[in-house]
Design a protein that fits this description.
The structure holds two protein chains of two kinds. By secondary structure, chain A is α+β, with helices and mostly antiparallel strands. Chain A contains 14 helices and nine strands. Chain B is an alpha+beta fold. In chain B, helix 3 runs antiparallel to helix 11, helix 6 packs antiparallel against helix 9 and helix 7 crosses helix 8. The chains are: A alpha+beta, B alpha+beta. At the A-B interface, helix 6, strand 1, helix 8, strand 5 and helix 10 of A face helix 7, helix 10, helix 12, helix 13 and strand 19 of B.
């Protein structure tokens, strides 16, 4: 037999020049490894054996890599590489087999020591949260945007003209009694009074003043009514106004739009109901109900008795709406004979309270982080 | 209004069970709040809209029931027995203010016996929530609840000269009303006076006076049944802050024709329950008689508004039942379902609010059933647009939330002293003329006011770590005009990093706030935009050493810093609080411009090399100045200049501080050699030594 392989010399220095010689050389090396393996009987021998073959600096495999493979002529490098990889895999596999034979439970011990405790938290990044009102606004905006409604906004401090008169609510109209209004304290001689809008409806007028039909807009925003605060009343709350005006908008388009919204927002099984009502700026006017989302419209509570949310009615009143009253078109120079449309105004706080089971409107505006973080 | 189910049966033979009736009424426009089976049978609580005064009586509700269930409405035609003596000899009526009072009728009954009411009458009143007083007073209430028209009864003998004069109130005129309150009036209010008109004995359509009230000693009764102008009544109730059953009915617009009928019905019941002699006829002064209005409704318009048809028969039946007496007037009369069909209707006097075709369409639709109009989605017609800054705002919001801030929503009403703490000089706040309380009397002139309050709430509720932001507005006045400015307000307090398994705790500091704002500013920084720039200064309510002004481009964007101790003490905030407010519109506009200018920059192919410069600097020299000096060398290979360590104290001489500056060099063309880097470093050291007297520390 030839000289035993020398791991410190390059192949050329050992006179190895052909693939056959390479193959034979590696076979010899493997034989040496197997022979050494036979000598391994305890943990310390295993460590020595491992060091001799897999040691990082002077292990056989490292030396073969450095001296044989890296210095191999290009013509042989493919063969050497292939042989080297096979050898490496063989050595590692065999070593693992022996290790498991010699160190029963060794692997378990390592795993037990290193295994992550999945019940511990990871590194916590304190991420903030969207306010629930914003989330509901966004959701409503997205639903209407998907059917062609643009979003507009406008001033919260309004003139009586936009808040009342142009919406067909002259002074001393009975509905003004239902909308107790905050007025701004203005310097003497002010051109006109200013108030805090009691609804988002002034934007109907502002929008129609600015653009000709077709109009499809929604208006999210804050509104104000001078009510004493309690669990269901806040003198500031939020609305989304909707307005669609065109040459061919009918009551059917109106109910269809509202139904689409409700099914998107509350789910496809929710039923809708329109009751005739009265608002000065819509005609026909409706109040709009959805089947109670808590009792499924049955009026019965799950545990027996009547549903506390709809008080047994099976319906929950959501908001007022209707076809735009022709009188309103007169204020914005639209031809009431040629165009028609619908408008609605929904209370967002109430929607959010309904959907998330919130029983006190004030929590929205206290901004306790424990509340804010409940709805990230 | 309480509707007594059995009372309805006086006028329509309704067979539907109360619950079903309630549901049908609700779906045709008379919402029923509740249906209760009480000691006097079923009572429904009807929520009558302000446009339907006719439904403020059982007769009006019965008319609705008749229309829904196609039942005949029984006529009301009382025929009380009259004596030979004429009422016109017993009482005189004069209306001096026809603009306030359109009709006044008077009847007189002599020798009545005032006594308690019989049980049936008491029961119906009790079911309606009205207290029983005596037969005559009860009857006037009963007729009001039955026919929806308010009446008033006087003690005839207490009316001076047996003469009624209806006139406007005199300026500052006073009278004591039935409820015992002395009230003062103004000339827009209609007064009922007696004799020479000098004494007021009632407020027309609102409440009677105390002096002519019916008592148990009353012998002779004068029945007033009149009609008052609704706008004048609403004005008066607001002026007097006095709302009564009568003012509700007149204020919404009563039926002038009903006045005489209700009076007659009242007389009939008084004769029945209190006896006496009804004088013949009625004194009826009626200056406000209206000619009946004609209104047309066409199928074409019905279809245009409602989008689906209603059969002729249904249209005619509904309108007839409601009293509109429809008559086909088109040329296709007889052709059922004609597209040209038109009906002429007469406005019934109890429906003054029905004046236009659209009003009739609403009547047809609500009786027919709104659920019969099939829902559909309208065509979109045009692209939809978000708010102009929607995307920028969304990115700001998401970034802040990622940085750990919770979004808040606040009520802008604040206390004057709170607003004054943070209000910039020369700013006029928007104060409320009629606040609910002192605590909520001004609209915040900066978002800081409510942000501080939100932090305060959290600290007072055991939440000492809070990072909050609000996208809102502040409100100011400029002369007599209001200005609402969108602002982003940020607040932070407590621990920026809480103690955890892997981290030690760290308090929120100015650097956290600045880092947050710069993370937002990055969205507005680009090749041509420098993003947020900071300068010394800021409002007095911020800590003088830890505050700054924030600029974007040429404009001031806002301020940021630690709340001054003085203000924090005032708000009882026992820990450091950091606040910032930025104007939103310029920031969003800059973000959009930046994004529009985004262009890809090819990644460098050659390695970057870092060099650290450990400098000893005199206090007062800023990192910004160091950076500026290095930049002034115009070495294109310098791609970043960072402060990576800052140290004061041990081994640093007093009046100095140590700053470790890391400069990164990179070329787009070649791999930089040590010689090149050394050359650059030499230039940097030289400029820093020269300009800032910086000493190098061994590192």
């Amino acid at each position: 037999m030839k000289n035993p392989p020398n791991f410190g010399l390059s192949l050329a220095d050992q006179g190895i020049e052909t693939p056959q010689q390479v193959a034979s050389l590696f076979t010899t090396v493997r034989q040496m490894f197997d022979d050494a393996a036979l000598q391994v009987s305890d943990e310390s021998a295993l460590a020595d054996w491992r060091n001799a073959w897999l040691g990082r600096r002077t292990g056989v495999l490292t030396m073969i890599g450095d001296n044989w493979l890296k210095k191999a002529p290009a013509s042989l490098r493919g063969d050497v590489g292939k042989q080297f990889n096979q050898l490496k895999l063989y050595v590692e596999t065999k070593f693992e087999e022996h290790r498991q034979r010699i160190e029963p439970g060794a692997e378990e011990a390592v795993l037990t020591r290193e295994r992550v405790d999945l019940s511990l938290p990871g590194v916590i990044h304190p991420i903030g949260s969207h306010h629930l009102i914003s989330q509901v606004f966004q959701e409503i905006e997205d639903i209407f945007f998907s059917i062609g409604f643009s979003v507009v906004d406008g001033p919260e401090i309004e003139t009586p003209y936009y808040n009342f008169e142009a919406l067909n609510i002259p002074e001393f109209h009975p509905v003004r009694d239902d909308m107790d209004t905050f007025y701004i304290d203005l310097p003497k001689g002010a051109a006109r009074p200013l108030l805090l809008r009691t609804h988002t409806s002034p934007m109907q007028i502002r929008t129609m003043e600015k653009q000709k039909p077709p109009v499809r807009v929604i208006v999210p925003g804050k509104v104000y009514r001078r009510d004493n605060p309690d669990a269901t009343h806040s003198f500031m709350f939020h609305q989304v106004e909707g307005l669609a005006v065109d040459t061919d908008i009918t009551f059917c388009d109106f109910t269809g739009t509202i139904e689409y919204f409700v099914k998107q927002f509350f789910g496809p099984s929710v039923k809708t109901r329109f009751r005739p009502s009265y608002f000065p700026f819509t005609e026909p006017s409706v109040e709009f109900d959805v089947s109670c989302i808590f009792c499924g419209g049955s009026g019965n509570a799950a545990g027996g008795g009547t549903c506390s949310k709809c008080k047994g009615a099976g319906w929950i009143e959501l908001f007022g709406a209707g076809m735009v009253d022709p009188a309103v078109y007169g204020f914005v120079n639209y031809d009431a004979k040629k165009v028609s449309g619908f408008a609605f105004g929904m209370g967002i706080d109430r929607l959010a309270m309904l959907r998330y089971g919130i029983d006190d409107i004030q929590v929205f505006f206290q901004n306790d982080v424990r509340f804010l973080r409940q709805f990230p | 209004m309480k509707v007594v189910y059995n009372w309805l049966k006086d006028f329509v033979d309704v067979t539907a069970a109360p619950q079903e009736l309630a549901s049908r009424l609700a779906l045709s426009g008379t919402n029923i709040g509740s249906v209760e089976n009480g000691p006097h049978g079923v009572v429904m609580d009807a929520e009558v809209g302000s446009n339907r005064p006719d439904c403020l009586g059982h007769y009006g509700i019965a008319r609705e029931v008749g229309a829904i269930h196609k039942l005949v409405l029984k006529p009301v035609s009382p025929k009380p027995a009259e004596s030979k003596n004429k009422v016109s000899d017993a009482v005189k009526v004069e209306i001096q203010a026809p603009e306030l009072c359109g009709r006044f009728t008077a009847r007189v009954i002599r020798n009545v016996k005032i006594q308690p009411s019989p049980k049936w009458l008491k029961d119906r009143l009790e079911a309606s929530g009205v207290a029983s007083i005596s037969n005559v007073v009860d009857i006037s209430n009963y007729v009001m609840l039955e026919l929806g028209h308010a009446l008033h009864t006087f003690d005839y003998d207490k009316v001076r000269d047996h003469k009624i004069v209806v006139r406007a109130a005199k300026l500052k005129e006073k009278m004591r009303t039935l409820d015992g309150v002395e009230r003062e009036f103004d000339p827009g209010i209609c007064m009922i006076s007696d004799g020479d008109a000098s004494r007021a004995i009632g407020i027309g359509g609102i409440m009677g006076g105390a002096e002519t009230e019916i008592s148990f000693s009353t012998k002779n009764v004068l029945i007033e049944c009149a009609w008052f102008d609704p706008v004048a009544i609403r004005r008066a109730t607001r002026f007097l802050k006095l709302h009564t059953e009568a003012s509700t009915r007149f204020g919404r617009g009563a039926d002038p024709e009903m006045a005489e009928l209700a009076s007659r019905r009242c007389a009939e019941l008084i004769l029945q329950l209190a006896g006496g002699e009804l004088l013949a006829g009625v004194v009826d002064v009626y200056p406000g008689k209206r000619a009946p209005k004609k209104i047309q409704v066409t199928r074409k318009e019905l279809l245009r508004v409602m989008g689906a048809d209603v059969p002729d028969k249904q249209i005619e039946a509904s309108l007839s039942a409601l009293g509109f007496a429809p008559v086909r007037v088109d040329h296709n009369r007889g052709a059922e379902g004609s597209l040209l069909a038109a009906w002429e209707c007469a406005q019934p006097p109890w429906r003054a609010e029905v004046e236009r075709e659209i009003d009739l369409i609403e009547e047809i639709a609500r009786i027919y059933g709104l659920d019969k109009f099939p829902p559909r989605l309208p065509a979109a017609r045009q692209g939809a647009a978000r708010l102009p800054h929607h995307e920028a705002e969304t990115r700001l919001r998401e970034r802040l939330i990622g940085l750990g801030y919770c979004e808040i929503v606040t009520i802008p009403h604040v206390a004057e002293d709170r607003d004054a703490l943070f209000r910039p000089a020369n700013v006029s706040p928007a104060r409320l003329a009629n606040p609910l309380s002192e605590e909520a009397s001004v609209l915040k002139s900066t978002g800081i006011v409510t942000m501080a309050a939100a932090l305060e709430w959290n600290l007072n509720h055991g939440q000492r770590n809070a990072r909050l932001f609000e996208i809102g507005r502040h409100y100011r006045l400029q002369g007599d005009k209001s200005v609402e400015t969108p602002v982003l307000t940020i607040g932070g307090t407590g621990e920026a990093r809480e103690k955890g398994l892997y981290d030690s705790p760290r308090e929120f500091s100015f650097a956290d706030l600045k880092g947050t704002l710069d993370a937002l500013g990055e969205l507005a920084a680009g090749r041509d935009a420098r993003g947020l720039e900071w300068s010394n200064g800021g409002p007095e309510w911020l800590h003088a050493a830890r505050r700054g002004k924030v600029q974007l481009g040429k404009g001031e964007l806002g301020v940021a810093g630690q709340l001054a101790r003085r203000v924090a003490d005032r708000l009882k905030l026992r820990q450091d609080v950091f606040l910032a407010e930025l104007e939103l519109d310029p920031l969003c506009a800059a973000m959009q411009a930046t994004k529009a200018a985004w262009r890809y920059q090819r990644l460098p192919r050659f390695p970057a090399v870092e060099r650290d410069f450990s400098l000893l600097l005199a206090e007062g020299i800023t990192f910004g100045e160091i950076k500026e000096s290095i930049s002034s060398l115009n070495i294109p290979e310098v791609v970043s200049i960072k402060a990576v360590d800052l140290f004061r104290g041990k081994n640093v001489p007093a009046g100095n501080y140590s700053l470790l500056v890391r400069v990164t060099f990179q070329s787009r063309e070649v791999t930089l050699t040590d010689a090149q880097i050394n050359h650059f470093a030499g230039k940097i050291i030289s400029v820093l030594e020269h300009r800032h007297n910086a000493q190098r520390r061994a590192s």
